[in-house]
Amino acid sequence: MSSTTSSLGGVPGVISSEELAKTGDYLASLQLTSGQIPWFAGGHSDPWNHVEVAMALTISGFTREARAAYRWLEATQLGDGSWFNYYVGTRVKDARLDTNVCAYVAAGLYHYVRATGDVDFARELWPVVERALEFVLRWQLRDGTIRWSLDAQGRPEPYALLTGSSSIYHALCCGVALAERLDTSKLEWELAAGRLGHAVAHHPGAFAPKNEFAMDWYYPIFSGALRGVAGEKRIDDGWERHVMEGLGVRCVSTNDWVTAAETAECVLALDALGLTTQALDLFGCTRLHRRDDGAYWTGIAYPDRVTFPDRETTSYTAAAILLAADALSSSSNAAGIFRHDELPTPLDLAEPGCPLDH
């Protein structure tokens, strides 16, 4: 583990810089010598959450570890630009190819460049991003949405998911911004993002119904596809259903099970809308999940206040906390990556025949 100086300044009234540094140390301690970062010691990893932890390591000062995380993705990328869904060490645990999982490296590498200014490393890893996003865009449908995965036999699923497509939209925007930083152009990515963003913002019926999941509620905002008044209305409409006041965000609206990762991501969505007071209040709820060693319980079930899964802490949960803290404190140069004004203004491209086409 490299010596580090965290750039995170803390969020007054919620968490100190020393506590955030301890969480960064905890995440760095989980990384394997290969660069892979599992959910917890001895557990599996997946490329999306692996990238999220790499982002948290970057802003915690563990830049060498973050680079090792991206090198692991480079070493394990398949010939078509994808990654398998789950890995345990060198073994593949789940051979499904999830398009959202594969796209997120673009957001991670752009975040790394914003935080560190290390353009040379980004240029080295650029082919990884190109192959990944080109794989993902092979599965864009005529309505702009993107098939969510291919099963272990390589058969594409026929439908798209709102959360996954929202995250892909954000990754495409980051890919376009990264290309510009590297003095290149990816107009086809920008056009694909315009079609996808339109579907996310205006055609929720194009996606498989998963309305009970909190991520389907806030991800269109979190990703930047839904902005301004429309984003605020979506937050207001779903708040009572998805938030337990003083406790955090329910992972699934039908259960009183609060998860710290969803709570932190919702904080980022609120921050993107400029709802700072609301974001700070919600972020305070994550204190209930914090452990003395800097880790965070994945979830707490109420009214019994028991951890679920039992005593589970996850690297992606701690990473989401650090990213939310960075956004609220504006500590790093990458603090605004989930804010709407920090990425290129997106196109809004309606498909032919769309009633919203102007």
Describe the structure in your own words:
This protein is mainly alpha-helical and about 350 residues long. The protein contains 13 helices and nine strands. The strands form four sheets. It has a three-stranded antiparallel β-sheet with strand order 7-8-9. Strands 1-2 form a two-stranded antiparallel ribbon. A hairpin with a 2-residue loop joins β1 and β2. α9 runs antiparallel to α10. The longest helix is centred in the middle third of the chain and has 20 residues. The model has no long low-confidence stretch (mean pLDDT about 95).
Helix content: 40-55%
Q: Mean pLDDT, rounded to whole units?
A: 95
Which residues form runs of ≥5 with pLDDT under 50?
none
Number of strands: 9
* Major beta-sheet overview: 3 strands, antiparallel
Instruction: Calculate the terminal CA-CA distance, rounded to whole Å.
Output: 54 Å
**Silhouette:** globular
Structural class given helices, strands, pairing?
mainly alpha
Radius of gyration: 19 Å
Oligomer: single chain
> What is the N-to-C order of secondary-structure elements (H for helix, E for strand)?
HHHEEEHHHEHHHHEEEHHEEH
Number of helical segments with 4 or more residues:
13
